[in-house]
Every structure is written in C-alpha cells, then in structure tokens.
Amino acid sequence: MVREKKVERVKELEEVFSNASSLVLAEYRGITVTQQMQLRRQLNNVGASFSVIKMSLAKRAAENIGFNNIVDFLSGPTGVAVINSDPVEAAKVLKNFSDEHESFTIKGGRMEGEDLTLDKFNLLATLDSRDVLLAKLAGGFLAPLNKFFGVGRALINKPAYAFQSLIDQKNLNNDEINNEEE
C-alpha cells in the first residue's frame, strides 16, 4: 500500500472507531468465507458490521484516537465488529456465532468509552434487548395503574351488584307473596 493510501485508511478507521457505540474484537482463524458472510449478514440485521482489517493500520488508528485498551487485542487474525445500534443484539449474535464455531473467539473490545472485557461481553449477551427492557419498564409502571383502576371498577360495580341483589330478592319475595295468595 502506498504511504498516502495507508494514511487515508488510518483516518477512515479512526472515524469508524470514534463513531461506533461499541467495538468487539474477535479472532477468526479457521472461519471460512461462507461462515464470515453468514456472520456479516446476521450482524447487518441488528445494525452492526464485521470487518477484517490490516492490524498495523488498526493499531495506529486506535492509538491515534486514544483507544489504547484495544491495541493489545489487535494481533493475529482479528476481525472488528463495529456496533452502531443496540449492543445487546449484536453481542447475542457474536456470542451465538462463537458458541457454534470454536475457532471464532471473542477477545474483548470497547463500549461507550469503557473497556469491554470478556466477562462484560458475556454478561451483555445475556441481557434482554433495549426494546424488551423498555417494555418491561412500561409494564412495571402500568401494573399499579391497572390495579388502581381495577379497584375503582370494583367499587363502582359492587354497589350495582348489591342493588341488583336487593331488587332480585324483593322480586323473589313478591313472587312468594303472590304465590301464597293464590
């Protein structure tokens, strides 16, 4: 690669790394091209991408923007998953792919400016997605309201049931009186 192209590529990587909400680095040794395409397709469906890039350029880009925590992971055949959406969904895809393919190993990464260790990554992959968590939160807020309105409905309905019982009882008593008179 000509020096100018390398400098340009490093700048592109700096921009990609800086704009990503999360980066996950994984060793892909032994993964076929077909399997890589399958992974890329799955990640694209959840707003992420997987790229194999020249490690020397990736190291330089990471150092230039202060992502020193990922520099150690940039050795050997390493691919970078760039996540621009919900990191939980992408982590689940990567974790499932790693479980299915022994030669695909998650190394670590960076999320929201913090180190993403292997333990944090595994925890992230077990969480519910953002949408599911928001739905659970909304359900938690609505449950007391539903209970309150249920009690209110019962307060309104109980007197109505009581009055109906009185009317039915009165009609029953009237019917008994009418039957005795006959």
N-C termini distance = 114 Å
SSE order, one letter for each helix or strand: HEHEHHEHEEHH
Class from helix and strand fractions:
alpha+beta
Note the beta-strand portion.
Answer: 5-15%
Q: Low-confidence runs (pLDDT<50, min 5 residues)?
A: none
How does the overall form come out from the CA principal axes? elongated
Average per-residue pLDDT, rounded, comes to: 79
Overall number of strands: 5
Q: What order do the strands of the largest sheet run in, or round the barrel if closed? A: 2-3-1-4-5
Number of helices: 7
The Cα radius of gyration reads: 31 Å
Major sheet details: 5 strands, antiparallel
The share of residues in helices is 55-70%
Characterization of this structure:
The chain is an alpha+beta fold and 182 residues long. It has seven helices and five strands. The protein is 65% helix and 15% strand. The model has no long low-confidence stretch (mean pLDDT 79). A hairpin with a 2-residue loop joins strand 4 and strand 5. Helix 1 packs across helix 3 (55-64). Strands 2-3-1-4-5 form a five-stranded antiparallel beta sheet. The protein has helices at residues 3-19, 33-45, 55-64, 68-71, 87-100, 118-126, 130-181; strands at 22-27, 48-52, 78-83, 105-111, 114-116.
Protein topology:
Blueprint: H1 3-19, E1 22-27, H2 33-45, E2 48-52, H3 55-64, H4 68-71, E3 78-83, H5 87-100, E4 105-111, E5 114-116, H6 118-126, H7 130-181
Antiparallel strand pairs: 1-3, 1-4, 2-3, 4-5
Task: Describe the structure using short key phrases.
5 strands, elongated, 182 residues, five-stranded antiparallel β-sheet, alpha+beta
